[in-house]
Write a structure and sequence with these properties.
By secondary structure, the chain is an all-beta fold. About 5% of the residues have low confidence.
């Protein structure tokens, strides 16, 4: 079994030559710019991530003509503490890939969902904090049986009945 490190140069979702199901096929540059190969991207269960162009990729030979991509490095500096999981999307901004939407699963059980305008923090004691820096709308809706919870709103409140 051979293992190579390459660079992602393109991707598409299409059917593989051996099946009827859609898969993500990557164009990977291996040893030099002339060595461009198509490999299937094998994903973790529950993870549908499109690798970004120019990210590094590990490619493994599984047979005579079957190569798969199994791991990626997008070049963004790691920031997760021990025991944490951080999920994020990226966009190209002035020639560099930057995080745009981030979900942090902290080791203490806190969950933080954020982008450049808003943050939602859910703590292990049940507190939920919504922060909005864009003067946008924060909507809280609920349904179901039981006593209503306490809502503490700092700022303007508009109630539609």
């Amino acid at each position: 079994m051979a293992i190579d490190i390459g660079t992602v140069k393109g991707e598409e979702i299409t059917t593989n030559k051996d099946g009827d199901d859609n898969v993500r096929l990557l164009q990977v540059e291996l040893s030099n710019p002339d060595d461009l190969q198509t490999v299937e991207h094998l994903r973790q269960p529950g993870d549908d991530s499109g690798p970004i162009e120019d990210s590094r990729v590990i490619v493994v030979d599984l047979g005579a003509s079957y190569r798969v991509a199994i791991a990626f490095d997008d070049g963004i500096e790691p920031s997760a503490a021990q025991g944490e999981k951080i999920l994020y999307s990226v966009e190209l901004d002035r020639g560099a890939w930057v995080k745009t939407a981030i979900i942090t699963l902290a080791s203490d059980g806190t969950i933080i969902v954020e982008n450049d305008k808003s943050t939602i923090t859910m703590t292990t004691n049940g507190d939920i904090t919504l922060e909005n820096s864009s003067n946008g709308i924060i909507s809280i809706a609920g349904s179901g049986a039981g006593a209503p919870g306490l809502v503490d709103i700092n700022g303007n409140l508009t109630v539609a009945i």
